[in-house]
Amino acid sequence: MRGAGARRWHGGGMELHCDTCARLRVFEKPACTxxxxxSCPDWACTACGAAIVVAPVILLMDRxxxxxxxxxx
Length: 73
What we know:
Blueprint: E1 8-10, E2 13-18, E3 23-28, E4 43-45, E5 51-52, H1 57-62
Antiparallel strand pairs: 1-2, 2-3, 3-4, 4-5
């Protein structure tokens, strides 16, 4: 598989593009003690430790730029 969207399961992790390593690397889910569920939503590169942080949809929606509408007088 090639390209930005290429993903392959690799043992306990998934092969994704790492921006720090600038190549395809295996990413695994780290142990997460502060997350209410048993598994963390984030992924960490097994080579350099860089993380892909996955934010909930609600947090992403709050970051949208505000559009101000003004009416002509």
